[in-house]
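Shall we go through a protein fold together, starting from nothing but its sequence? Label the sequence line and the structure token line clearly, so we can match residues to local backbone shapes. Would you write everything just below, so we can both look at the same thing?
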Amino acid sequence: MSSELCDPQVIRAAMAGAPFSKRLGQNFLTDAGVPKRMAGLFGKKHAVLEIGPGFGALTAALAETCGAVVAVEKDKRLLPLLRQNLSPFPNVTLIGGDALRLGLTALMPAGLIPAVCANLPYSLTTPLLVKLLESGSEGIGRALPDTPLPPLHDPVVVMVQREVARRLTAIAGTPEYGAITVFAALRARCSVLFDVPPESFMPRPAVTSTVIRFDRHAPDAARDSLVPAALRLSKAAFAQRRKTLANALSAGLALPRAAVTGRLRGAGFDPGARGETVPPEGYLEMAKAFTDIKMGA
């Protein structure tokens, strides 16, 4: 079934009169091997959240492999088509809505391991990844303020632009390294799985895509308490990338430069270095020197 949903003729006929939405980043898979390869990372023990199912090829592949699939589609035009395409799969729940506005963890069925597998819309990759990797850890994704948090999504397997994948997995000191690299590394282990060329889609995008996997770090109270401050420090450091740590943090934290310099030196950091030279775990160490400063993630 998933192979049929990758047939260009089937897609073209079904979408007649309903043009693809560039705003929503709609590029439907035409290479049946891609959804099968992504779905093969999961099993019957998993309940998988998919964001932006599009034509349903990945959804169908996941339904054939997983215990349950919850697919969230923002484009209301696609919902009737998806209901038809996915009707053979009773283990699929289709939800119309904006994934950025929904409590994602609350959507998942009980009794299975919650996970994520999706071809993310290019324009929303960063905010969606932030929500997915923080969901359940700091209240993002709660259904109601007083409800207990469901288990964290793990693993998170997503397709993104290759350039984004390179930034997410970059090494300190390289041009691609930035605040999003630090965020991803402090939340999870990130690994590149495989590339997907433009010809694997309809319409054909102008860029190559990459499938990446995130495995959440095991809970560690001491380490986790430092993460919000570490992320705030990295954002301040990269907001003025060409400035020294002392100057960038002073501006970003609204602290006197002399005070920042003293804290950095006390923690073993060179105030004259740039933020791009500090690895993700280094920002955790740096955060210990700013524990008395109110930090937001």
